[in-house]
Structure formats: structure tokens, C-alpha cells
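User: Here's a chain of 218 residues. Predict its fold as C-alpha cells.
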Amino acid sequence: MALAIFDLDNTLLNGDSDYLWGRFLAEQGRVDGETYERENHRFYEEYKSGQLDIREFLAFSLRPLSEIPPSQLNELHRQFMAREIRPRITPAARALLDKHRARDDFLLIITATNRFITGPIAEELGVDDLLATDPEQVDGRYTGQVSGIPCFREGKVQRLEQWLKQTGLNLADSWFYSDSHNDLPLLERVPHPVAVDPDETLADHASARGWPILSLRE
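Assistant: Prediction complete.
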């Protein structure tokens, strides 16, 4: 069984779920709109430029999970899925998943975005497993802190290595699809790296290395 590994935001999803969730919370009046949008945009630009301090970002992005009751969070996420996420899953993305599913590959999403946001998206896409940044919970409520290693850059490689040991799977004949140069540490580890609608840095790297470049956007 080969592994087919997928980044989520701007890869399988035509948009960034973390950024969209923050904007959605602002529109719903759950966070201060002007302040949150300004910081959300700043962190997103830092991510794209490769300058993101993941710990600083997570302290910002996980705070609303600790401030909103779980029952309300779940209802907000249902609305978020219907309004922002499902329309951004393209037929081409679903077809790529189906292609690997037909080959009996093991489908794994690996994403820096936290599990509260991405868990329902992974279920919608029907993948076999998800590795995401895990927000800490105590007595059924989010604390606003991170549990374990953030699933970002080299952290993705560390989390994947832990997962491989737990599952007994390996990277032989594996694929990894990503849009971002932040994922180069993992793209360099797999036999079949694929750049999907890549940013400029990744596009240049993929061209120099002879990696396939794919678009899943309509």
C-alpha cells in the first residue's frame, strides 16, 4: 500500500481554511473584526513569505477556541463548512483523491491548520487519516494552547515520522502534493513530490528539480 499525502490549504482546498475561519469569526462578531482581520492578514503574508513564527500565530489563532463554548463552536463550524469550505473543494481535487483511492493508496492529509478546523474537512474529503496541529483540550474545552509538535515545516516531517512508526507504513513509492515552499522539507523526503498551484518559490524549485506541477483550480 502506497501513501498519497496531501497538504490541505491551497492544495486540495481552493483557499486557506485557517485564514477563512478567522475571517468567518470576524463576520459573525465572535472576534473584533478590524483587529483580527489585520493580524490574520499579517500572519498569512508571513506564512507566504516563509517568515511565520508558528508559535506566535498559534497563540493568536487558537485563542477564540478557548473563548467560545464548544456547542457554539460546533454550530459555527457547520455554518463555516457550508458557506466557505464545500464551495472551495474543486472537482479536480476530488478526482485526484479518487485516482489514488482507485489504486488502493492510503490517503493522508497533513496540514499546519489545527484539527478543530480541519477534522470535518478531512471527513468531507473521505481520506483515511489526518495529521494536523492539535489544540490542547482540558475537560472538554480548548485551552488556547498547542498539544505536541505543531504540524508545520520541519514539524510536518517529525509528525509524519511519528505516525509512520505508529502505523507501520513507510514512504516507499509515496506521493506528496503541496502548494507551498514551506513544505519543501517533506517534499524532499518522498519519491513522488508534486507541486500543486505552487507559490513562486516552490514553482521555481519544482522546475529546477523536474517535479510535476499540477493545477486543481477551475
